[in-house]
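Form 7-S
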Amino acid sequence: MGEDVNLPSSERVIAVGIREVVPQLLHQVRIEDAVNRIHRITIDATELVARHVARCIHEGIRLPTVSKDYYKMAMMLVTVGNGDLKSVDVALQYTRNTMKSLQPVSRVNLDQLMMAQSISLSAAFNTNLHLHFRKRVARYVRLLRQPEPDAKEEKKVRKLENLMIASDVCKGKGRTFESPDALHSMVRMLRERLETQNFESDFMETNVKNFQAEIIRATHRMNAAFEADEQHCLSVCPLRRRVTPGFIQIDTTGIQQVLGLDRTDYERERDRKATKRRKLRALRDARNRELRSAMDFAVIPRVKAKTLEVEVDRTTARAAAKRIQRAWRRVAHVDVCRIARKRPLMLRKVQRVISEWAGKQKEERRRCAEGLLQCKESVWKDVLHLSRKTVRSRKDDVFAGSLRTDGVSVRLFFKSSPGTSGTSSDDATTNKKRKRGDASGKKKKPPSPIGSSDDPVPSRGLYVVDELKHLSRMKVAQIIGADPGKRELLVCVDADSPKFTNEKRRRLPSARYTMAQRRKEMQSDRHTAERVATTPESISTAMHAMADTNSRSASFESLEQYFIRRREWLGDALTHFQKSQHRHRRWQRFMSEQSSFASFMSRIRALRHDNSTPLVIAYGAWGGIAGRPGAVCNRGHPPCIGKGLRHKLSKHFCVISTPESMTSKTCSLCESVCGPCTEVDAFHRAKKIEEAGSDADAVSRAQHFSVRGLRRCSNVECAAHLNRDYNAAINIQRRCKSMLSGGQPPAMDSIDEKLDALQMKIQHGG
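Output:
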């Protein structure tokens, strides 16, 4: 069992095996069947949308607005079941008819799950556009301005100019450019080519809502340029590529549909009231139409108003909306004034009736909320068995009526009860103990400095130095230096500890978390070997042969070839990977990962001097991009947890992002410059060159080999051998203490400062 830490304190997600909380075998089978069908529907629907978008760009057809309703329509087209579609996009239907080899899946009892999945796919589609667009434009500018200069300073200036151009290309209409005047002509040319000249906002998320088609076409043009230059292509439409079924979201209505449960009395009553409201609304609309026609007041239907916004003019649509509001306000104002002037008693009676009606409505909403809660409880009571032994939730937590599952494991969503929202059970227990201690007359303990009025040091969270200095003056705090890396994921050192783990070598207490240790604790090698051994050779060969195709190609023919090749082995692969053993391995890896991280946190807590002093982790700033795909420092290296490790630690400790430039190249003993150990490197290079033999590439690698983890102080009097990450962690801790006490960060030239600011803006999607 594990817990998701990426939630506020009032909400929790608890992971547990499905057999522990769903006791009935029939329910388990139906849930697993729903997971498998939704997975297959998602694969087919994402392929249909990707095909259609590529076809629209290829044939010059108007691009559709990809939303949750559009994905739901695509899911309906690739499935069979009860009922027909009321409205279908003709162009999308034509693209669906070209998929001859598609075998439709039954959508019976999956309507609610398909809607939840379409919301997720729509969010992924729009996030793919707005989060990565600036980075893609920066990469496109770098491609257009090749070749790059050779000098280091000129490269830095060129990089800054490229980022400025990319930022200006994505600016809203009428904004001032920040690039030099000599580059404005290129900025205007790119804005016209990528159709960004009409953007109304500097925020890409807003632009995606209003200019989705333009951004899709711009991404396709950049993709074509990268493909022509034999670079990695971009993903215009996210695809479901994995063949092992993933997690799906199931709410109360969804579980009723999947398991075929009867509707509750509350739901029947709610449907009856909804039908009555629809009839009353229809009568009201008819009466309003008669009044409007009598007043000769033109009405613009909502559908036509949307057409006005797109085809005519936004100003016209806004003016029409304001005209409607002013007319109805004028009519209402005249009626109220007439009643107030002629019949004041009647006006007070109307006001009293309105007040009573508002009170009844409030009471009705309260009863509806209580009825909905009871309805959820009655439905889930027959499905889930939530005992304290299997689900270790807090005392005041209640099940929120929603879960995510892949058929093997379940993520249960809990939240605090309304009376205890935002207060954890640990805090409540502490308060009770404190009250009991006061009543019994026991001596009070000195107040903890954590969160006190004198020194409000936060107990957890991610902060920068200036932000934490604003919150607290750090009168009492234990700071631990932490250096992130790729092989050694994190090295934490307590440089202020009076104790030594090795008296002879005078080593300070530390906690290490390495990639090899994490892989061993997660049993990754064993799971990989099992997966390879159990996968049929025909499926493995066909999946490896897909490397000859390109699923992100800008060419419609290349994309079509990818889907045709994938359909040849997709059915056999889905049949094989839908077996529960593959998801069991994923569940085991998840539990091992949670256990590994918990063990590392306990080793960090062991560095604490006393419980009354808050623990602060000075985390190297490189941890903000560690493991991020596409970053220059990560190219050619295997993936690692990287940035996610810092995010997880910030949920349990106070983490300060600290500049770490030159910390690996400065001796922590004498503060002199330290570099590679030439003697050890020379010994290993000679040995590797001898082993390389006549292989030219191996000889070249051997000649540049260096023991990365070993540093040697250049000061003759010191000349100490240092572990690179251990040494850097000590320097990071000292730098953080210096900056918190008023010291200045390491000096940076103006170009580096601008580069950091622009890179941060572009990396976060602006």
